[in-house]
TrEMBL record:
Species annotation: Gloeothece citriformis (strain PCC 7424) (Cyanothece sp. (strain PCC 7424))
Region of interest: Disordered: 339-370
Biased composition (Polar residues): 355-370
Keywords: Plasmid
Protein name: Mobilization protein TraI-like protein
Amino acid sequence: MPTVKVTLSLKKSPHIQKASELMALGEIKKSFAVLEESGSIQQAQHCDKITQITEDYLAIASDERDKTVIVVQTKDEVEDITVRIRSRLIEGGQLGKSARITQLKAKTIKGAQCRDINNIEIGDGIKPTKDYKKRNLKKARLYTVLDKTRDRLTLVDKEGTKYTVDPIFEKTVYTQIPLQIAEGDRLFWTRRDSQLQHKKGQEFKVKWIRENTAKIEYYDGKIEQINLNTPLHLDFGWVKPNYRSRGNDEKILMFVGALDKDNFYKALSGTKYQLKFYMDNVQEFLEVVSLEQENPLADKREELAAQRRETNFKEKIIKNSVVKVYNETRDLIKLSDSSQEIVKDTDSKKEKNTIETQSNKPEKSNTNSL
C-alpha cells in the first residue's frame, strides 16, 4: 500500500504555511522574508508601536476580534494596550453597561513572608489554605483586614463577623482592587476554583450586566452567571503576556516586542490565518538569527539535550522493569509463604484429629470373666 505524505496544511493561510515550511527547514531568513513581503512585519518605536497595534486591532471586524490574540512581553505593555483598546471601544459605543467590581490580585509573597505582618496591609484580602479551628477561620474563605497591630490582625468576613488572630498561619494574601468591567469585555480567570469549575486562564466574555449579576459566555458556548458583589479572581483578556500565550491556536496573532528564534517559531506554529509582528528593530533580529545559525555550539547543545532525553527515557524504562520484577518476585514469595503456612496448618489439624481419635477409643477391660 503506498504511503501518502501531507505537504500542505489547509488550516493555515498560504503565506503562513510557506513561512512555516521554510522555518521547519531551518531557513529562518527566508521564512522571515515571506512574512515581510506579505506585510506581516511592522517596525516602529515603542509609542508608535502601541498606537499602531491599537489601530490595527480596532480595524478588525468585531466578530473576528474574539479570534485574535495580542501577545506582548511585559505587564506594562499589557496594561497600556488594554487601556487604549477599551477606551476606544467605550468611545465607539462597542462596550455596553458597566459595573464596578472588586478584583483579587495575589501578592507575590509566600511562606514566611505571608506570616510576616509587615507584608499585610489594611484592606488586603486573606484566604487560609486550610481550616484553623482555634482561630475560627475556614479554608478558602475570604477575610478582609480591618486593622492590625504589632502581632495581631483584625479580620472580617462577608457576613460582618470579626476575628482577631495572629498572622502566623498558612494563607494567600490578595490586594483588593476596584475594577470597572462592561458588557462586551474580554476577561479570564486568574485562579482555579474547583467548586465553581473555573480554570486558571479560562477566557470568557461579558454578555450582559443586571444590577449585581453578570451573564458570561465562555468560548466553548457555556453560559454562567456571576455575583458581582463578591470579590473575583479575574482580569482583562484583551492582551496576553508572552508566558500566557503558549499552546494557543489562534486565527489571528499580533505579536509585540522583542523577537527571537523560539518566539518566531511559536508564533508561526500557533497561528492560522493572519500574523503580524510589531518590532523595534528588524535588522537586529536578523543579525541575532544569523549568529544562532552560524554558531556550531547551538546544534551541539541540541544534540546533547536529545541524548540526555533519550538516556533519561531508557533509565526510566529500566527502573520500571526492575520495579515490576521486584513486585512480581515479592508476590511470589508471599504466595509461597502463604502456601507453606496452609500446609503447616493442615498438618497440624491432621495431627490434632489423630490425637483426638485415639483418645476417644474405649479402653479394653482388664477384668477377667468369672
